[in-house]
Amino acid sequence: MARSPLTLAALATAAVPGLEVAAAHPIGSGAHGDFESALLRSTDGQYYIVRVPTSERAEAEQSADLVALRALSTGVRTRLPFTMSSFVGQAPVGGTRAVVSEFVLGHKISLSDIPACEGLATSIGEAIAAIHSLPTTFIADTGLPVYSAHELLQQALSALDRAASTGLVPAALLQRWEEATGDGALWQFAPTVINGGLSADSILVDGGPDGGVVVGMLGWQSLSVGDPARDLFWLLGSPRAGVADSVLDAYLAVRGTGDRQLGRRARFYSELELAKWLIHGTTMRDDSIVEDAVSLLHGLVDRVQGDMNGALTHQTMPVLAVDEVDAMLRARGA
Fold first, then answer.
1. Which of 2, 136, 187, 244 could form a disulfide bond with 235, CB atoms 3.0-4.6 angstroms apart?
2. CB atoms within 10 A of CB 95
3. Contact (CB, 8 A) for 262 and 138
4. What is the pTM of this model?
């Protein structure tokens, strides 16, 4: 049975000496989500969120997020055009812990709400560019992962090998992806600080989509030095034409156009999600996931059939509309 907001508020007061809670409200998906959470308002008008993980996976995610938030010092945060939460305190509960953090005011929107015109799309591009412009030294100094372009390529190759070993990936896709990983120009880039797990759910907005601005960003558990394309590929899933281009234009206006293969690697990562979905299904021995992944992979083949030679390499623009691939994944709940 899920803990009530009042129970969670009591845990918060135990975690944060001197905290006096004036109001507590449920937030998130309760017993059916990864966390039992409550939004708290203190007597001095400050807002906090208290979260208790409901699984080992959620607990590990919470721990990684806390490490990242501590790594993002005040000096680093001043370089970002949005607010980030800060850890306040924790208290043991039922074999795990309740963690209290500052609550960042703002509201979430779906990917389909982001317009292709200037406004929110521009703000998102500038926010991501600010992350990627942070100095990489603080990542290494705090022991967070630092990957070279070569190591990131090897990670992609490892995922492809695991997917291929299932015998369920169409040969045409394996050829397509092998050519992409074999294209040296595609992997000549300078790794940057990345969030590593960005999605529409990560972004907090003030105002409506047309005039909205990014005021906060959630989910820092995958903070590292890595491929900037990892923070951009999710935008290709927008059902609105031009959204990814608008965000990328704003991004490039801040960071420049030195990484000419950024968009193609983003497309590659979007397709690679299908392979990872298959790997997840086989690892979990879940036939329904495996069948779904195989169906998606064959759907991908149908979309790129007739132009498999070098479609993801730097010489040729890809025929595949990756927004359709990502949309398929989202529709399936992947």
1. 244
2. 6
3. no
4. 0.87
Which alpha helices (H) appear in the chain, and where do they start and end?
5-15, 56-71, 74-77, 120-132, 137-141, 149-164, 171-181, 243-255, 262-284, 287-304, 322-332
Q: Does domain 5-102 have CATH number 3.30.200.20?
A: yes
Q: Please, what is the angle between helix 243-255 and helix 120-132, to 10°?
A: 40
Q: What is the pLDDT of residues 216-271, one digit of tens each?
A: 999 999 999 999 999 999 998 888 889 999 999 999 999 998 899 999 999 899 99
**Structural tokens at position 47:** 């807002």
Domain ranges of the chain: 5-102, 111-332
232, 322 Cβ separation under 8 angstroms: no
Q: CB within 8 A of 249, min separation 6: which ones?
A: 125
Does 111-332 carry CATH code 3.90.1200.10?
yes
Per-residue pLDDT tens digits for 120-130:
999 999 999 99
The CA distance from 11 to 14, in Å, is 5
Element (H, E) at 41: strand 35-42
The DSSP string of 22-38 is EEEEE-S-GGGSSEEEE
The residues pairing with 146 across neighbouring beta strands, listed in sequence order, are: 225
